Description:
Elements: E1 3-12, H1 17-33, E2 37-53, E3 56-68, H2 73-82, E4 86-93
Antiparallel strand pairs: 1-3, 1-4, 2-3
Amino acid sequence: MARTYEAAFIFSGALDESALEAEIGKVEDLVQREGGTVKEWTRWAKRRLAYEIGGQKDGYYAFLEFELEPAALDTLARVYRLNESILRHLHTVKDD
């Protein structure tokens, strides 16, 4: 049974607006390929990071609400780790 999740992302601050949109599109495509449903994106502006991550001082924060089978989360996390534009990510179960 699919559950509702929220994912927090920090994308590289070196991305321009079109590259950021492309990365967000890749995340949506991945969720849909794994059988999930994208509900809503919440994007914040570029922000100064509390500490450097990979030598970067700025990043774009974005939050995704989606539905997905729990078994598919490992696949998402693996692909996120391979994407150099995603500095950090975190999945949490959203209580209804």
